[in-house]
Amino acid sequence: MRPAARGLAGFCAAALFAGALLAAAGKDKLAELQARFDRESNSVHKAKVLEKLGGAQFEETRLLEKAANFSAAGLLWEKFRDNARLTLDALKKQHPDAERHSNGYRELEICLREGIRELSQSQIVAPPEFRPPLQIVRRDLSAMDDEVLRMLFPRRTVNVPPAPPSGEERQE
What pLDDT sits at residue 148? Predict the structure, then answer.
């Protein structure tokens, strides 16, 4: 084997090994963040951990989708939804007035919005047989996001005036 070919083969082997190490480190990080999330009893801190955990879960779902492992990606989306629900329930229990104590609710809303955007991308690349469960998760995330927004801005969602009539219908 030529020295240049040996060098290229060695470089490729090192790159594959580094990729495997990064994937293993990503799974370790995900497991560590999930354990931290599960241990957290303060709802505001739980929401902040969810932001980091959600980001790691989104990255892992992208990797699973590239590997065509859509069933594992779907299970990870369901875990994200369950974590978000746990966070919202904990926030409602510890800080029921979201308008006055918005810490945690804001982080959760941002994380939900990012999750909905990422999930929309997952739905595009998923084969048709994997889309219905993803649609259910997306509907659940959207409902939670709407609930958080109503809690954060209750006066804006109650007594919203109807849209003004169009120019043709208006009698002046």
Answer: 97
Q: Of the candidates 104, 107, 106, 122, which has an alpha carbon nearest to the alpha carbon of residue 57? A: 122
> Nearest to residue 31, comparing CAs of 79, 66, 69, 78?
79
Which parts of the chain sit beneath pLDDT 50? 12, 14-16, 18-23, 169-170, 172
Domain that holds residue 107: 14-155
Q: Name residues whose C-beta falls within 8 Å of residue 92's C-beta, 6 or more positions apart in sequence.
A: 151
Helix 105-125 vs helix 131-152: crossing angle, to nearest 10: 160
The SS3 of residue 12 is helix
State the total domains in the chain: 1
The residue with tokens 């505001």 is 44
Distance between CA atoms of residues 10 and 4, nearest Å: 10
| Predicted TM-score (pTM) of this structure | 0.76
